[in-house]
Amino acid sequence: MDLRLLGVGRKLPLSALAHHLLPWVWAGFAINLVSGTLLFMSDATEFAGNTAFRIKIALIVLAGINAAFFHARAYRYAVEVDPAQHDVPGASIVAAMVSICLWVAVITAGRMIAYVE
Questions:
Q1: In angstroms, how far is CA 18 from the centroid of its own chain?
Q2: pTM score, two decimals?
Q3: What is the pLDDT along the chain (117 residues), one digit of tens a residue?
Q4: Helix segments in 49-89, DSSP class H
Q5: Hey, where are the domains in the chain?
Q6: Backbone angles phi, psi at 6, to 5 degrees
Q7: Where on the phi/psi map is residue 7: left (φ > 0), alpha (ψ -120 to 50), or beta?
């Protein structure tokens, strides 16, 4: 979705893409939530004290806020744009760039958990 907002696959309407992707997004989030909770429970005291883990959780919360903002405000304007046009609303572009940066940071923080105390 973020890449589409940034101009990749302009021929595909945002509403059609969202219709097909959002169920997969929610399923992936649920799987990650369950597996992450189980992993956390395996050694909760060590994970809770890990700075990289706390940063990762904070970044996930920020990514959720960004997604909520996008769907509450920017999404309805973005889907109105003709797929062939290049002028996706600025708020949608900013939300997409912030989303990509946040998720890359979440992955990086997750990898750093093993190396940070």
A1: 14
A2: 0.84
A3: 889 888 888 788 877 888 888 899 889 999 999 999 999 999 999 999 999 999 999 999 999 999 898 888 777 766 666 556 657 778 888 889 999 999 999 999 999 999 987
A4: 51-69, 75-78
A5: 2-112
A6: -90, 5
A7: left
